[in-house]
Amino acid sequence: MRQKIKLIALDLDGTLLTNQKTITEHTKEVLKKAMKQGVIVMPATGRGIAAIPKEVGTIEGISYALTVNGAAVVEYPSGTVLYSDYLDCKTAIDALEYGFTLDALPDVYMGGHAYSQRERLHNIDHYIESITQKEMLLKSRIPVDDLKAFIQSHPDKIEKINIVFHDLSQREVAYEYLKKNKNLTVTSSMDNNLELNSKTATKGNALVAFAKTLGISREEIMVCGDSNNDFEMIKMAGLGVAMGNAIDEIKEIADFVTKTNEEDGVAYAVEQFVLKEE
Q1: Closest CA to 164 of 118, 103, 97, 225
Q2: pLDDT tens readout for residues 249-264
Q3: Cis bond leading into 77, ω under 30°?
Q4: Which of 35, 60, 223, 237 is the most exposed place for a label (fewest CB within 10 A)?
């Protein structure tokens, strides 16, 4: 018999958020009901805390967020770090320098914020076609003149390197090259990016480690996700839920496939596995 769920971790893009980057009122109400029953609800995202949509803050009761693919679990919305797994400076610089050799837009996540090389950010139209993705990136990136020098002057809290590609075939070549690096975990959340974290930094590792500090076992965790960077947490959780719009690799390992992010898929899963228990 499945254990009672005590913690729900939710990916944001393609999961909790609709394609318009909003959260439906029905989903908000369902999550509030779960929290009233004592269940902890937390975002689990590749974003830094600064890029978590303000609408998440309208769901009263959310106190924690797993950010940057597990590089940092923080209090929400204060950003106080409760758990961290950062990239070492040399690995980050090596990955960044490789990114600059590509027809790509690399950036660095540090302290909950994302920083981009000013000159490449100004050329964003070349790298990204999607208006929604472009707007999201421009809102969340802080331009700096020399990204490598910036990292070297702040070496202790490097969370992630993100690389957005103009040429998807070049992305595949980069993936094959980067995954050989024993110091990196290489994932993605979109079909045109790669996300580089510490070797041990995954959403799954961070979630299980943080839950343990709350006295919650992995069997008592439910997660919802749709992308490659959700793989580990869906595999490790007691109840792994794939969105109806998830990639095939996620659906194959999930315990349950819910409706899509456009059909209140998160709410449907919570109703089935959490609220029905009461």
Answers
A1: 103
A2: 999 999 999 999 999 9
A3: yes
A4: 60
DSSP assignment letter at 91 = H
Cα–Cα distance for residue pair 259/256, rounded to 1 Å: 10
What is the second-level CATH architecture of the domain 89-198? 2-Layer Sandwich (3.30)
H/E element holding 120? Answer: helix 118-121
Cα separation of 20 and 47, whole Å? 17
Please name which of 46, 53, 48 lies closest in space to residue 11, comparing C-alpha atoms: 46
Identify which has the larger pLDDT, 134 or 2.
Answer: 134
Over residues 224-246, the mean pLDDT reads 98
pLDDT category at 3 given cuts 50, 70, 90 is confident
Do residues 239 and 2 lie in contact, with contact meaning Cβ atoms separated by under 8 Å? yes
Q: What is the mean pLDDT of residues 188-213?
A: 98
Q: Quick one: which of 203, 131, 134, 202 has its CA closest to 164?
A: 134
Phi-psi region of 40 (alpha: psi -120 to 50; beta: other; left: phi over 0): beta
**What residue ranges of the chain are covered by domains with CATH 3.30.1240.10?**
89-198
Which fold, 7-85+202-277? Answer: Rossmann fold (3.40.50)
pTM equals: 0.95
* pLDDT, tens only, 182-193: 999 999 999 999
